[in-house]
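anyone seen this seq b4? input:
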Amino acid sequence: MRKLKTSIDDQFWQNYRQLVKDELIPYQWSVINDEVDVKIQKENANAFDAVEKSHAIQNLKIAAGQASGEFYGFWFQDSDVYKWLEAVAYALRYSPDVQLQQNADQLIDLIEAAQQPDGYLDTYFQLTSPELKFKHVSFSHELYCMGHYIEAGVAYYQTTGNQTALDIAVKMAACISHHFGPEPEKLHGYPGHPEIELALAKLADVTGNPQYTDLGKYMIDQRGTEPNFFEVQAKARQNSGVQDRFDSFDNEPRAKYFQNQSPVREMTTAEGHAVRMTYLLTGMAHVARQTRDQSLMDACRRLWDNITRHRMYLTGGIGSTVSGEAFTFDDDLPNDTMYAETCASCAMTFFAKQMQEAAPDGQYADLMERELFNGTISGMSLDGKHFFYVNPLAVDPQASANDPTKSHVKVTRADWFGCACCPPNLARLIASVDEYIYTIKDDTIYLDQFIGNESEFDNGLSLHVSGRYPWTDQIEIVVTAKQPIATRLAIRIPTWSQQNFQVSIEGRSNPLQTGTNVSATDLRNGYLLLDQTWSGSTKISLKLDLSVRQTQADPHVVADLGKIAIERGPLVYCLEEVDNGNHLPQLSLPLHTTFTETFDKSSLAIPFIKLTTSGQRITTQPQHLYETAGLQTTTTQTVELIPYFAWANRAPGEMIVWVDEATAESTV
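predicted toks r here
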């Protein structure tokens, strides 16, 4: 069984999808074509110097012989274009646009002209250092960029049937296969920045050719083996006297940064650059599913557990430090120096989806939901034209401006970045959000996300999901069958609602009668399973528990000791200075306080549920920097909270997610 099509009619996500189609995609097109003046921001004080423009399309034109000039920008600029193309492919599925498709077709023709006869395509090396092709794979990003094109080419071919788009991808894969593999004359290596592995798996899916999976699996299996491939290449460059701009990066041990400190099946903790790690895991999970490689899937599950239990923020963000944009150690989750790159949250969503495809489980769909409603969309402003690279859980404008260790933590979203990976990554995720609603496994339809939609399946069944999620608790699912169809429908019950939810079913031959209450003991891996023969139209009413929750972190997370965070349904909430005044860390909230929910239609560009409660603020005016403990005074203050994804859309200022508890409680 497979899904034939999905049309989204969800108010929340249609707003974002139209924002991507009408604002973000045209805006990014103007940026990569250098048609608009933007202030390109440096990601942090220690980052590479920011470029003044994108020049990404112009690089392709020069490589194609359609323009003169030199390469400009970061050596991985090509990937910005390819992710834009992939977002267009998804957007055209729900919003056909003749002019947009024409622009994309012409871009594909340009990419084909820039591609070399052997399938190689990387404008940086073609225009600056052709003699160094595949000679510094740890930092070159050649395989990363080509992987992003393969993803885009596959998506565009699936949407439009453009054969050239797929042919370019196939030629790229042939080029990579010619250079990498187990044969003695080939490179026995893998990319410094994983991406090609997951792209090859997608290419295998669309072409039915397992050789692409085999190539991706070879690179996965080769990673972390001895001799170390990157060290071998470094010695070869040194012996030949060849140097390039990347050699200065090899002056320190970077095995964990590249995830090649050990073979992937031996890894026990998620290490290094967070995006690289999760792109690698996405490819591992996809290849493991395609090849039925149990030990590889076991490694994926082990690393999934490590990330989600010890190395992930409440919003789904990952990457605890700006140094290497990386994981650090278990339970090290600082809120004001964290990285939590937008791309990393997108990558966790990709990883979760592949794990779900392999073995459906509510924990994977729960995390997709957490990422979709929090850690990803926080990376874009509500106008679709400003972006966060880093998504912190605590911000102080003075610290961002004056502390170099917090220079990556921004108070306002930027027009664009020199390293502009995040905006197009987010665009392609939002535009393809319909792919995250359902999972089909065996003869079961898993409803993973409560995004309003109308979907048809090739067994003759159709589903219509409606409601005003995440704001209201009622969800209606209408199952329609023109003729009797025996199929299992599995409905995810989010972990936060499993102790309090209600399901009622109307119709004949139902395992549950109208008004029946169901408990958590009736769930299997977080899903309510409905086995029956569907006939005509059957309405299922689901009521979830959207009451406000006060959340505490594991006490090993030192940064959150004595603090609480506020959640409602899938949403994490935060406090902003514009609502609560400055010095937000001086505020505290009592446990088990009452929250007032208000549907606010005017404060932000979208309507949302605002939370209000009573808190405490420290009012002591000390005479000295340090004084005797126990003399602080507090006053009562009204505290307002908004969804985390919507912060920094008004006046710049402080923000916090974790708030001190007003009173300490203990149990014996």
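The first strand starts at residue 3 and ends at 8. Residues 11-32 form the longest helix (22 residues). kinda curious what u guys think
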